[in-house]
Structures are given as C-alpha cells and as structure tokens.
C-alpha cells in the first residue's frame, strides 16, 4: 500500500493502473503465494512427507485478452518484455525469466487447453532465488490468468502438475510438486502436511501469536546443484541394497529406522547416514504434525532442531553460514524452533518466533550474523497465507 494524492492504493490497484497505461484495457488480476517449508527436507524425492505453508509474499499477474494468439509479458522485476506465439511454441526454454510463464502456457496447451492471446503484467514481492518459491508463484498465477482469459477452468491438482511440468520439462529444473501444490492449496493460518506419494494433504493450524521468520544467509555455494544430484543417487543406492530384504520397499518412505539398523552392515557408511536422515525426517514430520494439532510448540521446536542436526551431520547439506544463523536464532528468547530450509549449501533458515519477539529476533540475528560473516542477512517476517486466487 502507498499514499498517493490523499488516497491509498492497494498493490493490485497500482498494478491495474500500470496495466491500463501500458495496454489501454482494465485487467483481471490473479495472485499466487510464495512458500516456506517448516519441516521435511529432501524427503519429497523419496516419496515422503513435507510441511510447507503459503506465505504473505505473492506474485500478481494482470491479464487482458488479445485478438491474436500471442502472449506478451512484462515483469516489474526485469526490464525486458517477451513474446510467445502460441502457434509456434518452442520445445525448450531459452534461460530467460519468461521461460516459467511461457512454459506454463505451453504445458496447458499440450494438456488440451486452447488458450487465447493475452497481455500479462507481473508484480511480485517474493524474493527471487531465495528459496521462497518465486518460481511456483509466477507459474500458478500465470496459469490461473491464462485459463480465465480463455474462458477455461481446470482442477487445481492438474494445474499444479502442469506448472511442475513446465518447470521440469520446459525450464529444465528438476523439482518436486511441493511448491506448486502449496501455491494451489495453501490455507490461511495453516501449514499443510503433504504426502508426496499420494498427494494427500492435511491442514495444520499455526497457533496465533507465532510468526514464520525466514532469514536469508545471502550465500549460495557452488556445490548445491551437484551435491543435490549426489544425494538423490545415494538414496537410490540405499533402496537398492534394502529392497531385496524388505519386499514392498519402493523408496525410503517405506523403510523404518529398525529396518535400516538391521541391514546397516550392508550399506556403505555414507549411504547409511543419508538413509538415516530421510527415515528420521519422515518420522519427524509426522510427529511435528501431531505437535501442531495439539498446539505443542515446544515439541515442534525440538523437532526443527533435530531436523537441522540431521541435515547437518547425516545428510551434510548445511554450511557454516546456515549453522551460524540457526545458532544465533537459538540465542533469542522467543525462538520456538530454527533450522535450515530448502536444498542447503546456503539459502535460508526458517524460524518459528513468538510474534512479540520478532523485532528483538531480527535485531539480534542480523547483528550477530553481519559481524560473523561480513554480510547483512535479509529477514522476511511471514504469516501463513491463502492459496492462489483471482483478486480483482
Ligand atoms: P525461487 O527459490 O525463488 O523459486 P527459482 O530459481 O526456482 O528460485 O526461480 C526464480 C526464477 O523464476 C527467476 O530467475 C525468474 O526466471 C522466475 N521468476 C520468479 N519470479 C518472477 C517475477 N516476479 N518476474 C519474472 N520472473 C520471475
Ligand atoms: Mg523455485
């Protein structure tokens, strides 16, 4: 919101005005949230459990129809505009930011949705590349805008899957369904426990008076991509050793800690520890869900701490900056839980913090981190927000 000649314009009205100036028509506006994952890290590609929440940082897309079959797009985050001819769709992205929305348009058409041409204008406050899923936010908001503009509707799960396809096949990023799913199904004041095998989800209330505080280390180590693929391969290696002993084991999701201990001797030490992280992390997500159901924040915080230790020691995807940030968070009275979130090797931590302690938290963690690392962290104070929708 900002003041202008005595009136207060919402960010959507502001976007609508900018759109009118550019294209001369009043747009419809669709918005989709970013997200943060509270617990359940690296479990998605092992068919396990995750617990994301949609957040009050979002991407809005203004749309109005065109007479041709061209999509013209601009974003407040980038200077250049891009065009897509729906009758000559490329098969691959070009490493341009527009790959995400254009990938969505192309996958929707491949799924049988005949789209009309559209002018699109994007406005977002989801930090890009910080691990809050600006990518799913732009995908899902664009999908809703393009479908509405074409007089079409689709099932939300199909929509999430189409957006994931756009990211996997057109952009070329190997990501699970979590980000698009929570953008489509998030519920205000709630996290969702998502079963990445069945895609069933359970809403879990975040107690009033608790903020989801994300701290960005502002570092991303080069290791991230290669190590991610290595972890996936190590998990698969674990399943190959365990499955002959444990019929019906299709993924680490099916393995218990007792199973793992029984066959420990057959696993290389590193593979054993990788498997132990996944098996214990799945169990932590289930226990964290129980804790939220009974508003037991103390247990939830303890599980977050255990998750961080397991990611650091068994899965080895943390780094000095993430460990420092978690340590500084734990020094603040009012911190309920703190851990790294996302793939690791930099990026963000997620902290559950008592609302009335958020200012003290921000001050303490920022000062300590800046002194230790020599960089100012960014701190995003989030609440659990609702799913993507038409907003104007
Ligand atoms: P994140 O963790 O934010 O999802 P990704 O690397 O998965 O990071 O996605 C970021 C990319 O998504 C950007 O580089 C850009 O191509 C695209 N993107 C996200 N938000 C926007 C936006 N508001 N406008 C244009 N492109 C965007
Ligand atoms: Mg992303």
What does it look like?
This protein has 392 residues and is an alpha+beta fold. The chain has 11 helices and 15 strands. The strands form 4 sheets. A 6-stranded mixed β-sheet has the order 7-6-8-5-3-15, sandwiched between helices. Strands 12-13-11-14 form a 4-stranded antiparallel β-sheet. A hairpin with a 6-residue loop joins strand 6 and strand 7. The chain is globular. The two termini are 15 Å apart.
Descriptors:
Alpha-Beta Plaits, alpha+beta, four-stranded antiparallel sheet, 392 residues, binds adenosine-5'-diphosphate, six-stranded mixed sheet, Ribosomal Protein S5, domain 2, binds magnesium ion, single chain
| Strand fraction | 15-25%
CATH-derived architecture of the largest domain: 2-Layer Sandwich
Largest sheet: 6 strands, mixed
Order of helices and strands: EEHEEEEEHEHHHEEEHHHHHEEHEE
Shape type: globular
- What Rg, in angstroms, do the CA atoms define? 22 Å
Ligand inventory: adenosine-5'-diphosphate, magnesium ion
User: What is the count of distinct domains?
Assistant: 2
> Are there runs of 5+ residues with pLDDT below 50, and where?
none
* Overall pLDDT metric: 96
Q: Which structural class do the helices and strands define?
A: alpha+beta
What is the topology?
Blueprint lengths: L1 E3 L2 E3 L1 H13 L4 E10 L11 E2 L1 E14 L4 E6 L6 E4 L13 H12 L7 E7 L9 H16 L6 H16 L6 H8 L4 E6 L5 E5 L4 E11 L3 H19 L14 H6 L6 H25 L3 H17 L6 H11 L4 E7 L4 E9 L3 H16 L4 E5 L6 E2 L2
Parallel strand pairs: 6-8
Antiparallel strand pairs: 1-2, 3-5, 3-15, 4-9, 5-8, 6-7, 9-10, 11-13, 11-14, 12-13
Helix pairs in contact: 2-3, 2-4, 3-4, 3-5, 4-5, 6-8, 8-9, 10-11
Bound molecules: adenosine-5'-diphosphate (ADP) and magnesium ion.
């Amino acid at each position: 919101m900002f003041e202008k000649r005595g009136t207060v314009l919402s960010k959507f009205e502001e976007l609508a005005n900018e759109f009118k100036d550019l294209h001369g028509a009043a747009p419809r506006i669709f918005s989709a949230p970013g997200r943060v994952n509270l617990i359940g890290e690296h479990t998605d590609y092992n068919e396990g459990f995750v617990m994301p929440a949609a957040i009050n940082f979002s991407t809005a897309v203004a749309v109005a129809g065109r007479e041709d079959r061209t999509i013209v797009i601009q974003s407040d985050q980038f200077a250049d505009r891009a065009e897509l001819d729906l009758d000559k769709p490329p098969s691959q992205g070009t490493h341009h930011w527009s790959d995400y929305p254009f990938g969505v348009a192309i996958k929707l058409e491949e799924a049988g949705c005949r789209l009309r041409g559209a002018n699109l204008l994007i406005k977002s406050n989801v930090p890009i590349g910080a691990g809050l899923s600006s990518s799913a936010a732009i995908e899902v908001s664009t999908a809703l805008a393009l479908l509405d503009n074409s007089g079409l509707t689709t099932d939300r799960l199909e929509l999430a899957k189409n957006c994931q396809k756009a990211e996997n096949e057109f952009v070329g990023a190997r990501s699970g369904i979590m980000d698009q799913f929570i953008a489509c199904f998030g519920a205000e004041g709630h996290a969702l426990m998502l079963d990445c095998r069945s895609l069933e989800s359970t809403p879990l209330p975040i107690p009033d008076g608790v903020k989801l505080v994300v701290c960005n280390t502002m570092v991303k180590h080069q290791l991230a991509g290669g190590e991610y693929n290595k972890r996936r391969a190590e998990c698969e290696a674990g399943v190959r050793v365990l499955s002959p002993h444990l019929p019906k084991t299709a993924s680490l999701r099916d393995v218990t800690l007792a199973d793992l201990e029984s066959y420990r001797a057959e696993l290389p030490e590193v593979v054993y520890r990788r498997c132990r992280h996944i098996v214990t992390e799945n169990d932590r997500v289930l226990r964290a869900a129980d804790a939220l159901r009974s508003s037991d924040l103390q247990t939830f915080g303890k599980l977050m701490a255990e998750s961080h230790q397991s990611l650091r020691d068994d899965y080895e995807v943390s780094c000095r900056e993430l460990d420092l940030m978690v340590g500084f968070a734990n020094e603040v009275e009012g911190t309920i839980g703190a851990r790294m979130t996302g793939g690791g090797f930099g990026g963000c931590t997620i902290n559950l913090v008592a609302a009335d302690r958020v200012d003290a938290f921000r001050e303490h963690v920022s000062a300590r981190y800046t002194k230790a690392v020599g960089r100012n962290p960014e701190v995003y104070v989030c609440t659990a927000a609702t799913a993507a929708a038409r907003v104007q």
